[in-house]
Amino acid sequence: MRFIDNSIVDLPPGWEVRAGLATQALINGDIEADDRANIWQDLKNSLADISSDRCWYCETGIPRTDNAVDHFRPKGRVRGVRLSGDGESLENYQIQPEHLGYKWAAYHIENFRFSCQHCNEFRKNLRGTAGGKASYFPLVNEQHRAYDLIDQDNESPALLDPCDVLDWRMLSYDKAGKPFSHFNSGSEDDLRVKLSIRIYHLDQASVNASRAAQWAQVKPIFEDTKKWFLKKLRGDVGADACFRRELKKLRQWFNPKNKSTYLGFLVYQLEQEQLLDSESLHGWIGEILRGLG
Ligand SMILES: [Zn+2]
Fold first, then answer.
1. pLDDT of residue 124 exceeding 90
2. CA of 266 to the centre of ligand 1 (A)
3. 120 C-alpha vs ligand 1 centroid, how far in Å?
4. 226 alpha carbon to ligand 1 midpoint, in Å?
5. Neighbour tally for 13: CB within 10 Å
6. Could you give the maximum distance between any two Cα atoms of the chain, in Å?
7. Within this chain, do residues 178 and 229 fall inside the same structural domain, yes or no?
8. Considering the entire predicted model, what is its pTM?
9. CA-closest candidate to residue 48, choices 112, 106, 120
10. If you measure from the C-alpha of residue 201 to the centroid of ligand 1, how many angstroms do you get, rounded to a whole number?
11. Alpha-carbon distance 139 to 41, whole Å?
């Protein structure tokens, strides 16, 4: 997961008026949300542009399919879900009173997330793991579930949100690319991370392998940058130019516009390297990280 700033999206002419009318019609019961799916589909390419065609939840590159727009707050009936006692599996429960969907958010731009099918729809893979957000929208406290727009801010979503400035930084990964929670077991943050890994299917073997393969490409550049920086400190001739060249190469991997990066994972790895730099010799690591918000 990476941070996605969805506050500036290119809107087609007349889009806001169409969305406003549809919202009113849906709330009045005159239409079903899917009747006007073209309203969010019209923004699909603009949403994809923000992340260079990568899923906002898992960062996998995805083709621009029709159903690539997820509603963070479900537009239809919401199903209750929580982690089981062992934290490993999901269990469903009945939301009381029944929730027929966040109709006020069905055509609201801030509720749209560009998403791959694995994160968006419920799927089971051959290895026996399953995931997909489907009609889930778990809350930290179910008692605060909003049935009206005016109460929406009472909700604390249990799922990590890529459009939140801080949420994406809560995920940790091992060297094999596997996501995990570093929070105290059973704490609110721990449950949010575990539930998100499970529901977004972030622990899929193929995605883990892709993350790890990427760091394997970046690590040598990182090591070279470090090496030239140390030579530069020693005063070696030409070291400064070599250091700058490697640093530029390294920064390309951390550019949010780079079409091929698992940025959230790379940032986490770089942070781990920064922790190993106990004498704070390599200040340039922090400069790369600071540039990512
Ligand atoms: Zn995804």
1. no
2. 17
3. 7
4. 33
5. 7
6. 75
7. no
8. 0.91
9. 112
10. 8
11. 27
Q: The dihedral of CA 71, 45, 119, 196: what is its sign?
A: negative
Bridge partners, 130 (sequence order): 124
Q: Is residue 10 part of a domain?
A: no
Residues 249 and 277 in one domain: yes
Exposure b/e, 232-250, CB count within 10 A at least 16 = b: beeeeeebeebbeebbeeb
Question: How far apart are the CA of 240 and the centre of ligand 1, in A?
Answer: 40
**241 and 189, same domain (yes or no):** no
78, 153: one domain: yes
Q: Which two tokens stand for residue 56?
A: 């906002």
Tally of domains in the chain? 2
Domain presence at residue 2 = no
Inside any domain, residue 188: yes
Claim to verify: residue 195 and residue 226 sit in the same structural domain = no
Domain boundaries, position 213 = 205-290
Answer whether residue 126 shows pLDDT above 70: no
Instruction: Write down the pLDDT at residue 172.
Output: 97
